[in-house]
Amino acid sequence: MLVEKWKLLNKIIQNKLFSIADIRVASAILQHYNNKTKETYPTNRRLVQLTGLTLRQVQYSTAKLHLYKLVNKLSIKGKNFYELTLDKFEIYEQTFTSKPFTMNKPSPPTKPIINIDINKRIKKIAKHSNPYYKATINNGLSYHQNMENKYTRLMSQKLSRDQYSQWLERLDNKNTKQYALSEAKRLCG
Q1: Which of 40, 58, 61, 38 has its CA nearest to residue 50?
Q2: What CA–CA distance (Å, rounded) separates 78 from 38?
Q3: pTM surpassing 0.85?
Q4: Digitized pLDDT (tens) for each residue of the chain, 189 residues in all
Q5: Which of 27, 58, 148, 173 is most buried (most C-beta within 10 Å)?
Q6: Of the candidates 154, 155, 144, which has an alpha carbon nearest to the alpha carbon of residue 178?
Q7: Whole-angstrom Cα distance, residue 11 to residue 22?
């Protein structure tokens, strides 16, 4: 049986399904194999000490070895017992090694972006980030006209009715318009 357990370890090492942690755990389990009683019963704590892995890694590796029929893991009264199953693994070996490890299909290569119009990019980002952007751009007014409308809306909230009507008169007068806008900027800004 000594030769068989090392054959089993060699099969685990050569198989690409198993990580280094799985190989360490398998090696530690095989070290505890008793030729006379044909029993293997290291505890998880012992496997953690021998391998230097965490308890969760040991549990994951023993479950993986059990899944691929390398060892038969039995839990009797809270203790682990392992049976070596080299003959069962040889039956399943071809099915596990023949499957290529694949994930999702790779995405097709993207086209390189050669010409980037920075103004279009900025407008696109602004459209998605500022909800008032579309309303401002699509109304056809200039920046100063939009700011004047904004101050008119805000001043109606800041001033009383009498003060607001006086402010509107100053805004309509060409001579005092700039003064009214600077006053609105000071109060609302």
Answers
A1: 58
A2: 20
A3: no
A4: 567 777 777 878 887 888 888 888 888 888 887 777 777 778 888 888 888 889 899 888 888 888 887 777 777 776 776 777 656 555 444 445 545 555 667 666 666 666 777 788 777 776 666 666 655 555 667 778 878 888 888 888 888 889 888 988 998 888 998 888 888 888 887
A5: 58
A6: 144
A7: 12
Query: What is the rounded distance in angstroms from the CA atom of residue 128 to the CA atom of residue 149?
Result: 23
Cα–Cα distance measured from residue 45 to residue 55, given in angstroms and rounded to the nearest whole number: 7
CATH of 2-98, one of 3.30.40.10, 3.30.300.30, 3.40.50.11270, 1.10.10.10: 1.10.10.10
What are the extents of the domains in the chain?
2-98, 118-188
Extract the tokens encoding 91: 């039956």
Q: Which helix (H) or strand (E) holds 71?
A: strand 71-76
